[in-house]
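Please supply some protein, with fold tokens.
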Amino acid sequence: MPRRFCFAWRPVILQPMTDRQSIVLDARAMDRTLRRMADEIVELNEGTDDLVIVGIQRRGVQLAARIVSSINDREHVDLPSGALDITLYRDDLQTVGPRPVVGPTNLPWGIDGKHVVIVDDVLYTGRTIRAALDELADFGRPRRIALAVLIDRGGRELPIQPDVVGRRLDVRASQRVDVLVAELDDRNAVIVADKQ
């Protein structure tokens, strides 16, 4: 029987940054968390056979790349990875504006019969993941789809739950969770801040 990871929930102690912001994960903690998530993904899949990692634009793509790098280094494989831009699949597209910014979707290989892991930065209502599932369905029929998120902040509006979680937070509706990645933000961190 394969091993399953079981991490007990523990309260997160936020490091104060300002009166309105707190650091949840600094760069080192974020790196450790992503390495653990990579190990959990391999365990969930019982290896790397037929495994495909797909990040959701924007920051999910950068997080997915780090997870893939960790798996490749530890398992001595070359995992296929890709990117999804779910903008045109959103159920609130009309509220985004007349000219939404659409990034690239890059799935250069087939996903039929594969074990696809969707990676996102923050799971909140579940609507982004629903849109990602709709988009993936246009590219093929995976054998299994799993969800890995760096932060699960609760507040679900749809019955969507992650398979692999970096950190669970109890965040008020009046707060936001910002995931910063060096490629886009010049630093790596997870911050909880009051909404403006």
User: Anything to note?
Assistant: The chain has a mean pLDDT of 87.
